[in-house]
Design brief:
Layout lengths: L2 E2 L1 E3 L2 E3 L4 E5 L6 E6 L3 H15 L2 H4 L2 H17 L1 H12 L3 H25 L3 E6 L5 E10 L2 E5 L5 H14 L3 E5 L6 H11 L8 E3 L8 H7 L5 E5 L2 H12 L4 E5 L4 E5 L5 H13 L9 E7 H17 L18 H11 L8 E4 L19 E4 L6 H4 L6 E7 L2 H9 L3 E2 L1 E5 L3 H6 L8 E4 L14 E2 L2 E2 L4 H7 L1 E9 L1
Parallel strand pairs: 1-5, 8-9, 8-11, 9-10, 11-12, 13-14, 13-19, 14-17, 16-17, 19-20
Antiparallel strand pairs: 2-3, 4-5, 6-7, 7-23, 12-22, 15-16, 18-21
The structure holds nicotinamide-adenine-dinucleotide.
């Protein structure tokens, strides 16, 4: 059995407390994972502070970038192992683990190296009040120890989006992967341990959230900033913790994302794109569409076609290339999805596709599969219209005009993403400012340059992430003024 341990200041450390990571595909044990002990967190933070405020944090950017580039190349060479690890933890297909997580994640380190080299330090001359001349210059310094707390849905990519900016700016990063997906980050840690990145600059600590590693890391006074992706309720708990010591937080949280389908839509594209946006990764992407609003004139056509598409989606064929779906990440997550779908009929809605656990007649029946689901007929205040399902579940409702469509789309505490399906260019350009979300896609979904900024509205996020914004979050401007 694989044993996944903690990496603390260059040393692999086991723990008396372990748990078994279960495959959501077959119910088999994937690995035994060692939950970090409090002492390991103290040691990781102490080593991290020494690195960030010592040689690692003060070396010239080019020297640090050279070390990270070398690590990134070594990580890319392990991409097949990373894909296997992701497949084992999540049950997703090889094609998806490779294209959506593995290659994108390993490429991110190079992307952040390039970006960091373009960051400019500022300087200026000035005349002081006493008539003297001065000059000031501002440089960005590392913040110190950055806690990187990631979710399970795209494990390596989400973690790399935090680690790459933190490390390139000279911080020490403490990686806390989700308890559901410990494997790929452990491989990343093996590669870092064998690289020139100094021991103290990176630690990997496994464990859970509350009363466990996640809470202990974020509570630690030696942690200078926290970057977190996960549920809004967890984000709120972490913000309360971060208030002690006034530590900065950066958060990407959930979504209950709408799509608007107008009468002038290219229906072929909207169905294909709508299918991917709702069911890709079994609906476990923060940007997945969960609420679709269709102009009444095209509503029946959209619903009929989407039901046909949902019923024909292939499930649980990991070696199949192209679109298919795997299980949900765990049985407990399936229980959450199922319990939300189970509210549909009692609250006045109707389920037209899915709404059930599939039966395969083989080992997959021990997995956490759930059928792609299309529901209709719910009011805006119904439970499933308010709560994020984070599963393969779409609700479709009609609208009569643009104002109503916008009002329906904005009727949510979340504000992460939205999609507009329309061939009217003026409409596609005039609608986004009316939508209270951080990212709008037009006639597409999830095509993304990972250095473009993202800021969730409402309970979907705190602060701006990605690209230069992440480099800024992971650093601290320091101004030096000299009297000439
Ligand atoms: P989660 O909030 O349950 O857990 C996320 C991480 O936080 C895990 O590593 C967990 O162990 C840790 N954690 C839990 N409680 C903690 C605590 N009290 N203190 C410190 N750490 C704690 O989220 P999840 O179920 O892993 O992920 C799914 C959620 O993530 C969904 O809501 C989804 O929308 C969101 N998400 C958002 C984005 C985005 O870009 N906005 C991207 C991916 C996922």
């Amino acid at each position: 059995m694989k044993e996944l341990k903690n990496l603390v200041a260059g040393e692999w450390r086991g723990s008396a407390r372990t748990w078994d990571k279960i495959s959501p595909f077959s119910g088999h044990v994937v690995a035994r994972v060692h939950e970090a002990e409090k002492q390991m967190i103290d040691d990781a933070v102490a080593a991290g502070r020494a690195a960030a405020f010592g040689e690692w944090g003060t070396m010239p950017m080019r020297a640090r970038v050279a070390i990270i580039r070398d690590f990134a190349q070594k990580l890319s060479a392990r991409v097949d192992d990373l894909v296997e690890a992701d497949m084992a933890d999540t049950g997703r297909s090889r094609w998806q683990a490779s294209t959506f997580d593995g290659k994108r994640a390993t490429g991110l380190f190079e992307k952040y190296c390039e970006l960091a080299l373009t960051l400019e330090n500022r300087s200026n001359n000035f005349e002081g009040e006493g008539g003297f001349q001065g000059v000031w210059l501002t440089q960005r310094r590392p913040k110190g120890v950055i806690a990187c707390i990631a979710p399970w849905n795209v494990p390596l990519l989400m973690m790399s989006l935090k680690l790459a900016p933190a490390l390139v700016m000279g911080n020490a990063a403490i990686a806390k992967p989700s308890e559901e997906t410990p494997s790929s980050t452990t491989i990343l840690a093996e590669v870092i341990a064998a690289s020139e990145v100094p021991d103290g600059a990176f630690s990997l600590l496994h464990g859970f959230g509350r009363d466990s590693t996640g809470a202990w890391i974020t509570e630690h006074p030696g942690v200078d900033a926290i970057t977190f992706t996960g549920e809004p309720a967890t984000g709120a708990a972490i913000m309360r913790t971060a208030a002690t010591g006034l530590r900065e937080v950066s958060m990407e949280l959930g979504g209950k994302n709408p799509a608007l389908v107008f009468e002038d839509v290219d229906m072929e594209r909207a169905i294909e794109g709508g299918m991917r946006s709702a069911f890709f990764n079994t609906g476990q992407i923060c940007f997945c569409t969960e609420r679709v609003y269709v102009h009444r004139s095209r509503y029946d056509e959209y619903v009929d076609r989407m039901v046909g598409v949902a019923d024909s989606i292939v499930m649980g064929e990991p070696e199949r290339s192209g679109f298919s779906i795997g299980p949900l990440v765990s049985h407990s997550h399936r229980e959450k999805v199922k319990s939300l779908v189970d509210t549909v009929v009692p609250e006045g809605g109707e389920i037209l596709a899915g709404g059930r656990i599939p039966e395969f007649g083989d080992e997959r029946d021990k997995g956490a599969f759930y059928c792609p689901t299309v529901a209709v007929g719910l009011d805006s205040d119904a439970t499933m219209m308010r709560e994020e399902t984070f599963g393969p579940v779409m609700h479709v409702a009609p609208f009569d005009d643009e104002d109503e469509a916008i009002a329906l789309a904005n009727n949510s505490r979340y504000g992460l993403g939205a999609v507009i399906w329309s061939q009217n260019v003026a409409r596609c350009l005039s609608l986004p400012p009316k939508l209270r979300v951080g990212h709008v896609w037009v006639n597409s979904w999830q095509i993304r340059d990972l250095s473009s900024p993202l800021a969730g509205v409402g309970i979907s996020g705190v602060g701006e992430q990605f690209g230069v914004r992440s480099l800024e979050f992971c650093s601290q401007p320091q101004t030096i003024t000299i009297r000439l």
